[in-house]
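Field reference: "sequence" (input) and "structure" (output). Example, Pyridine nucleotide-disulfide oxidoreductase domain-containing protein 1:
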Amino acid sequence: MANQIKATFVIVGGGIAGVSCAETISFLCPDESIYLLTESSLIKTVTNLVPLGKSLTKFDIEEKDAENINRHVHVLVDILESINSQAKTIRTKNGRTIHYNYLCLCTGARPKLIEPNNPHIIGIRDTESVLEFQKRIKNSRKIALIGNGGIASEIAYEVNGIGIDWVIKDDHISSTFVDAGAAKFFQSRLKAKDSKPEKATIKRMRYTEEGQTSAANQRGAALGPDWHRKINIEGKVKDIPDSVRIHYETEIKEIKNTADSAFPIELLLTNGESIPCDFVVSATGVAPSLNFTYDQPFTFGPDGGISVDALMKTNIPDIFAAGDICYASWDRAHHWFQMRLWTQARQMGAMAGKSMVAALRNEEITQDFCFELFGHVTNLFGYQVVLLGKYNGQGLGNRYEMLVRVTPDLEYIKYVLVDGRLQGAILIGETGLEETSENLILNQLDLTPYGDDILNPDIDIEDYFD
Ligand SMILES: Cc1cc2nc3c(=O)[nH]c(=O)nc-3n(C[C@H](O)[C@H](O)[C@H](O)COP(=O)(O)OP(=O)(O)OC[C@H]3O[C@@H](n4cnc5c(N)ncnc54)[C@H](O)[C@@H]3O)c2cc1C
Ligand SMILES: NC(=O)C1=CN([C@@H]2O[C@H](COP(=O)(O)OP(=O)(O)OC[C@H]3O[C@@H](n4cnc5c(N)ncnc54)[C@H](OP(=O)(O)O)[C@@H]3O)[C@@H](O)[C@H]2O)C=CC1
């Protein structure tokens, strides 16, 4: 093993951000020396990329052996321990010293647990953590699920054979992605899965934010889509009716480890209930993963991520960052905001790659078009969910109105409008409105003349704008 390596480009992390950065560089500069340092020999790549609009894409994540990455990229399975930015070197756990011209940090994030050292509280991030979940759930009867984002929503819907007490701070489920209306639409999936579609109804409503009462080794790459289907995660309890009990607008008051071998942990809730259970899943978000030391201080964002500018540069010369580890500190476009998702990890990784190549060649580049508009395609409660722009009226105060079309068990469409111009959209189900909605947000066409017909199911709105 060579202990001294000289490389033009070094990328740390084998998740989506690191791999898309390395692939972009190898496409643009195949003859330069490119090293990808990754802790795990399994890396994540994007496959089956389907464009749904100008920048909106749907894709799968594939896990493959690091050996099979692009042949221009040298893969080192090792761990970054320290950065010496003055000498432009990094040190690894296996004793390597790598000299870089340009370094990109893509070390992702780790679960932010409600009580990190409690053995009865686990998080879910990588294959190792999901195997732990699988092992524990086999011998369990009841778990508590904390958090109201992506992971909690997936567990509540996908995991069977176990009693789940789902504790959420909000008045509706899945609040990081949807509003109360869409949550209600999902809820029928939590109870009955085969109900028949009904006739569509359209509602227009004024909306005000104020008016709403409340509207282990964790270091492998984050799991891929359908992680819950690829590994059998099932409890042992058969035929439990209504197995998900939701505690709305509730928080945890106290956590007690009991001496009871039946239920070793008990949660006391602000709604006065107590939940004795086998273990707790803390699906309470992530914190950027800075598991290495550095000689010069980075500038950090309020969420603990390394601040990067529009070209993914950190404050330290020739060091870039992308994906979950970073905080987007540039002057953001009106319809874009940061969320720690595959889409953004991929886009940021590719942007960092282009930017590193431009730095080598002393070229000027501008930020990619994809950062103009927030777009996310995912699956929740068995539906395709597309989120565009300010889909929940984020930052719009009380200035917006919503146009909603719902066909129970089939589709939920919400348009967020300001002065007749589309600011964001939630499209649940196979709506076929992705590209049109994306265009309407980008071109800011005044939709006032079309009134509620914009979402009339009997009118093909694409015809309006051809
Ligand atoms: C259960 C789950 C489900 C999700 N579902 C979705 C979804 O449906 N849609 C979606 O858009 N997003 C989803 N996400 C979020 C998405 O997975 C992440 O935003 C994305 O994977 C982040 O990519 P990344 O490359 O920045 O980080 P990661 O995927 O975390 O990769 C970081 C990499 O860095 C390596 N590393 C860390 N430290 C070091 C070190 N010191 N030295 C060397 N290597 C190191 C790690 O081993 C890993 O390979 C989900 C996340 C989870 C946990
Ligand atoms: N389908 C998809 O796109 C999926 C995406 N992911 C991504 O993976 C990452 C991890 O997912 P996840 O852990 O669900 O994170 P999320 O950020 O999606 O959600 C975290 C949830 O936990 C709540 N929360 C935070 N702290 C506490 C606390 N102390 N007590 C109670 N609730 C709390 C948050 O509420 P509040 O915001 O009010 O603080 C929020 O509802 C995220 O980046 C997520 O976007 C994960 C699964 C699926």
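The radius of gyration is 23 Å.
The chain has three domains: 4-108+289-372, 111-179+215-282, 375-464.
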